[in-house]
Design goal:
This protein has 436 residues and is of the alpha/beta class. The chain has 13 helices and 18 strands. It folds into two domains: 170 residues, Aspartate Aminotransferase, domain 1, CATH 3.90.1150; 245 residues, Aspartate Aminotransferase, domain 2, CATH 3.40.640.10. The chain is globular, with a radius of gyration of 22 Å.
Length: 436
C-alpha cells in the first residue's frame, strides 16, 4: 500500500493521520486484571492451578448459563477438545490422533481457519457449507442439501461470525433430524444472544460441545486463552484430564491415553477474570460503534453486517458490504491485489488502504475456507449442490457462492472500543471520500 498516494490525494485533503493508531480491536484493560495477576504472582500461584482459573471458569459458566467450563490455552485448543469428544461419540475405538479418520465433517465456510483445523488434527475430511446473506453464517438450506448428498455425516462444526449468531433454530433442527452432533465455535460471539423457538440462550450454549476464545482481540481477553463449556460433567472431567497430559491417578507420572499441554495458566486467567467483569460494558461500546457506522454510512451504497431480529449480537466487529453497482474494478491474487479508482465507486481494498494510510486498522472479511489453498481439494456445498467447478464455457452464469461474494465486496472496519466518536467520524469521512 502506497501511503503517500492517499495523503496527497485531493479527495482526502484536510484529513490528518491519527497520531496514535486506531485499532481494529485491541485489548481493553481496566485495573482488576492487574490486581488478579499481581495476587497470583505474590502468592506464587503462576502455573496451571489457582484461584483465578477456578473463578474464571465459574464466571464463564454462570454467564453462559452452563454447568461446567474448562480453561484452556486458547480457543483452538478448546475447539480441538470439542472435536475430539465428538469423535469419540461418532467413531468409537479410533486410534489416537485419528478420531475422525474416514469421517466427513460439515463446517462453516466463512470463518477463521482455527474453526476447521481441529478436524484435520483428528484425521477428518472437512466439507464446507456456503454462507447465507442474512447473518453471514452457515446457510441452513445449503446444510440440508449437504445432508442429502452425504447422509452419513454425523458432525457439524459451526462458527458465529463477527459476534452475530447463526440461524440456530434451523441449524439445530436440521442436525437433530439427521442425528448429527454440533461443535459450536463461539470464539467471536462471547456475550451474543439468540432467542429462537427451538433454542434460546447465549452463544456458547447451543452446541453438543462448545468453545469460546479470550484471544487478544476478542471482546473479553486474557491476552490469550479459551474455554470449553458444557453441561456434561463427564465431558468436562475428560477435557481437564486430556488438557493436562492425561496424567492418571498414580503416585508417579502414568499415562494411559494421549494427552495435551492445553491448560490455561493462572496468570492468563487473572487477566481474563478481571476483563470478564466488564463484558457488558464492552458489548455496549461495540454496539455504539456499530450504530454510528450504520448511521454515518447510510447515504452511501453500502450496508453494515446484518443480523436477525431474534438475535442480539455482541457487535465484536463492524463491517460493510458495498453494493454491486458501486464496486470499482478490483482483483486479488493469493497474496496481492489491484484496483482501479472510479468516481462514485470504491472497493474493499481501496477503503482499507485509505483507512490504513491515516493510521487506522481495518481488514478484509475472512477469506472463505473453500477458497484457501490448503483446502482447495475439500468439498464445498451451495444451495443447489456441489459448489465447485460451476463455470461453463457454453452456458451463462456460474452459480451462487455467497461467501465468496461477501469476501469480494466486504471489509471489517476499525471497531476498537477505545476509539472515540470523533475518531470514528474521521474514519467515516475517509470512507465517504473513497466514493468521490
Amino acid at each position: 500500500m502506497n501511503r503517500e498516494k492517499y495523503l496527497s490525494d485531493p479527495r482526502f485533503r484536510g484529513i490528518k493521520p491519527f497520531p496514535s493508531k486506531v485499532w481494529l480491536s485491541s485489548p481493553t484493560m481496566h485495573g482488576e486484571e492487574m490486581a488478579y495477576v499481581t495476587e497470583a504472582i505474590e502468592t506464587n500461584w503462576v502455573s496451571t492451578v489457582g484461584a483465578n482459573i477456578n473463578e474464571l471458569e465459574k464466571a464463564v459458566a454462570d454467564y453462559l448459563g452452563m454447568q461446567y467450563a474448562v480453561a484452556l490455552t486458547c480457543g483452538t485448543a478448546a475447539l480441538h477438545m470439542c472435536v475430539k469428544l465428538a469423535a469419540e461419540r461418532i467413531n468409537p475405538g479410533a486410534a489416537p490422533g485419528n478420531g475422525l479418520l474416514g469421517q466427513r465433517v460439515f463446517c462453516s465456510d466463512m470463518t477463521f481457519d482455527a474453526s476447521v483445523n481441529p478436524i484435520l488434527y483428528e484425521g477428518g475430511e472437512p466439507i464446507f457449507i456456503d454462507t447465507e446473506a442474512d447473518t453471514w453464517n452457515m446457510d441452513p438450506v445449503s446444510l440440508e442439501k449437504a445432508f442429502e448428498m452425504y447422509p452419513d455425516v454425523k458432525l457439524v462444526v459451526l462458527a458465529h461470525l463477527y459476534g452475530v449468531p447463526a440461524k440456530m433454530d434451523e441449524i439445530v433442527g436440521i442436525c437433530r433430524k439427521h442425528g448429527a452432533l454440533i461443535v459450536e465455535d463461539a470464539a467471536e460471539a462471547m456475550g451474543a444472544k439468540y432467542t429462537g423457538s427451538v433454542v434460546s440462550g447465549m452463544c456458547g450454549c447451543f452446541g453438543d460441545f462448545s468453545a469460546v476464545s479470550f484471544n487478544g482481540n476478542k471482546i473479553i481477553t486474557g491476552s490469550s486463552g479459551g474455554m470449553f463449556v458444557t453441561n456434561d460433567r463427564a465431558d468436562a472431567e475428560k477435557v481437564r484430564k486430556w488438557s493436562t497430559q492425561s496424567r492418571e491417578a498414580a503416585p508417579w507420572y502414568q499415562h494411559e491415553e494421549l494427552g495435551y499441554n492445553y491448560r490455561m495458566s493462572n496468570i492468563i486467567a487473572g487477566v481474563a477474570r478481571g476483563n470478564m467483569l466488564h463484558i457488558d460494558e464492552h458489548i455496549r461500546q461495540k454496539r455504539e460503534i456499530y450504530e454510528r457506522y450504520r448511521e454515518g454510512l447510510r447515504d452511501l451504497p453500502v450496508t453494515v453486517n446484518p443480523f436477525e431480529s431474534k438475535s442480539t449480537p455482541n457487535y465484536w466487529l463492524s463491517c460493510l458490504l458495498i453494493d454491486e453497482k458501486a464496486m470499482c474494478s478490483q482483483v486479488r491474487g493469493d497474496k496481492d491485489y489491484m484496483y482501479e479508482t472510479e468516481p462514485g465507486k470504491s472497493c474493499p481494498q481501496e477503503i482499507l488502504d485509505a483507512v490504513s494510510a491515516f493510521n487506522a486498522e481495518g481488514r478484509p472479511i475472512w477469506k472463505p475456507m473453500h477458497m484457501q489453498p490448503i483446502y482447495r481439494m475439500s468439498g464445498f456445498i451451495v444451495r443447489d449442490g456441489n459448489g465447485r467447478a460451476r463455470s461453463n464455457a457454453y452456458i451463462a452464469g456460474d452459480g451462487a457462492d455467497i461467501g465468496a461474494d461477501i469476501f469480494r465486496r466486504g471489509a471489517c472496519l476499525p471497531s476498537d472500543n477505545k476509539m472515540t466518536p470523533e475518531q470514528q467520524a474521521v474514519v467515516i469521512d475517509i470512507i465517504h471520500r473513497c466514493f468521490e
